[in-house]
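User: structure tokens for this one?
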Amino acid sequence: MASSIKQSNNSSQATDTKTLSDDKAAEEAKAAEEAKAAEEARAAEEARAAEEARAAEEARAAEEARAAEEARAAEEARAAEEARAAEEARAAEEARAAEEIATQQRTVYIARWGNANVYWYSIDSMPNNTRFDRVVSMTEADAIATGKRPALKQ
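Assistant:
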């Protein structure tokens, strides 16, 4: 009988040990699953963060490209405006030079054999008492060079 109590004690101890081992194995399996789930969550979080960083980098690169394109367009517009202004200035200078040349080459009329201090652009504008047989014609540039000025009444 003592041996049967010992055996039943040994059996219950073996069962308890087996139950403890099973509980410990279940706890370790649960802990391993939790660790695996935590690792997967961490990996998913890292992947999400990496994707956000990549998207932010792409957005920054796109913004820089847009800014560079705007700067290039602004530079082209400024260059075109400068070219247009330079062309207008050149055309205005050419027009002024042509007008001055035309003015300098106009024929003017001077009374008293060219000794009068004024000149006229038309003989018809000269005073009625002018002796037209003594009127001299020359270019306006020559008249200005000899110190003549335009008549006040043309």
